[in-house]
Amino acid sequence: MEGKTVKPEQPSFFPEVLSSLYSAPSGKSGMSLVSVLIALFILLVGILSLTKIYPVLEQLALRSQRYTRTQTIADHILERIEQLYGSEDTAVPTEISGSVQQFPGVSYRVRFARQQENLYEVRVSVFNKQEGKTIEEETVSILRQK
Asked: Rounded to the nearest 5°, which phi and psi values hold at 10?
């Protein structure tokens, strides 16, 4: 025993912990077929519900995009009306219409209704042509001549 160093044996704790974590209490290991089928069923229900919701979400996104574009166009038209007809000495027409060059398939109509002296109700209708249908969205504002 000359030259050999003998190390005392240390208890092997770690493998026992791992084996107790991965073994089933009854001594059986693995998942049963029933638990796999239940997990697949739950996954399938989740995926099917997402496929049902997706078209609705897509329609809402398109509607929101169209509404935002319409409001942007209406705001631009109202700013231009304020520049053209905002002065007291300028006559206000009863109606104007046109198309928006930046957006093909979009046109507008503006109707003015006098409420009081130098105060007009302004109705801006924006028409979007999409998929063979014309969709109208209206914005109402006030023009006060100064």
From this structure: -100, 145
How many domains in the chain? 1
β-pair partners for 125:
109, 138
Is residue 24, in this structure, part of any structural domain at all?
no
Provide mean pLDDT across the span 106-111: 95
Q: In this structure, is residue 127 part of a structural domain?
A: yes
Range of the domain at 84: 30-144
Query: Is residue 77 included in any domain, yes or no?
Result: yes
User: CB-hemisphere CA count at 13 Å for 61?
Assistant: 6
Half-sphere exposure of 142 (CA within 13 A, CB side): 7
Three-class DSSP labels, the chain: CCCCCCCCCCCCCHHHHHHHHHCCCCCCCCCCHHHHHHHHHHHHHHHHHHHHHHHHHHHHHHHHHHHHHHHHHHHHHHHHHHHHHCCCCCCCCCEEEEECCCCCCEEEEEEEEEEECCEEEEEEEEEEEECCEEEEEEEEEEEECC
pLDDT digits (tens, 9 = 90+) for 58-85: 999 988 998 998 999 999 999 999 999 9
